[in-house]
Amino acid sequence: VHRIPPPRGSPDAPLSALVFDSVFDPYRGAVIYVRVFDGILRKGMRIKMVSTGKVFEVSELGVFHLKMVSAPSLEAGEVGYLVAGIKD
């Protein structure tokens, strides 16, 4: 591999992200693993789960290093996690 192209997607577009996994933490609820395709995901944003139609507020988000590291936002092309008090 000589060159990897940058991710496509615009930070100015409406948020579009893929949930690809989740784990349950008894104190925080579901920790959702996401890849952001378009837009910017920020702490405090209200997000809607398309499958259930429920709306949640993002209380924590970050990226993966050797451990989960808190971050102020996730932008188009980034992979990370979010916590939104999802218990169901």
General description of the model:
- It contains no helices and nine strands.
- It has a single domain (16-83), classed as Translation factors (Elongation Factor Tu (Ef-tu), domain 3, Beta Barrel), CATH 2.40.30.10.
- The protein has 88 residues and is mostly beta strands.
- β1 (16-25) and β2 form a beta hairpin.
- The termini are far apart.
- It has a five-stranded antiparallel sheet with strand order 1-2-9-6-7, with no helix packed on it. A two-stranded antiparallel sheet has the order 3-8.
Number of domains: 1
Helix content estimate: under 10%
**CATH fold label:** Elongation Factor Tu (Ef-tu), domain 3
CATH superfamily: Translation factors
What's the story with the biggest beta sheet?
A: 5 strands, antiparallel
Rounded average pLDDT: 92
String of helices and strands: EEEEEEEEE
Key attributes of the depicted protein:
single chain; mainly beta; Elongation Factor Tu (Ef-tu), domain 3; 5-stranded antiparallel beta sheet; two-stranded antiparallel sheet; 0% helix
Can you give me a brief rundown of this structure?
This protein is mainly beta. 0% of the residues lie in helices and 51% in strands.
Reconstruct the topology from this structure.
Layout: E1 16-25, E2 29-38, E3 40-42, E4 46-48, E5 55-57, E6 60-64, E7 68-70, E8 73-75, E9 79-83
Antiparallel strand pairs: 1-2, 2-9, 3-8, 4-5, 6-7, 6-9
